[in-house]
Amino acid sequence: MYARLGEPITIDDMARSAMYSKFHFTRMFQQAIGVPPGRFLTSVRFREAERLLLSTSLSVTEIAERVGYSSLGTFSAKFKSTFGLSPSVYRDLAVYAEPVSGAPVSGAKLRKRP
């Protein structure tokens, strides 16, 4: 998943790579990781999107494409449902974030600096 983050990846692709049926793969993956493979992939993609938003000047469209979304609207809607903010607002507010005890910015408390 990490190596092909920007490409479309299906459960069939993952199962074929592991040489299992998609049903067996999904069951085994969830048993081992604790979440279904699709949800895990979404989490990996958003973790990378968050990193890119906070550490690069790439546009939101470029970030969406890099993490496997061909539709900016879909990416933005899913990002907002996950983080509670649109990608651009999330990036803008990160300027005010102060990491708490070494936590990543996503776990930071947002406070406006004087």
UniProtKB/TrEMBL annotation:
Pfam families: HTH_18. Residues 1-93 form the HTH araC/xylS-type domain. It comes from the Bacteria. It comes from Actinomadura alba. The lineage of its organism: Bacteria, Bacillati, Actinomycetota, Actinomycetes, Streptosporangiales. SMART domains: HTH_ARAC. The keyword Repeat does not apply. This is Helix-turn-helix transcriptional regulator. Gene3D superfamilies: Homeodomain-like. Keywords: DNA-binding, Transcription, Transcription regulation. The keyword Glycoprotein does not apply. InterPro entries: AraC_XylS_family_regulators, Homeodomain-like_sf, HTH_AraC, Tscrpt_reg_AraC-type_HTH.
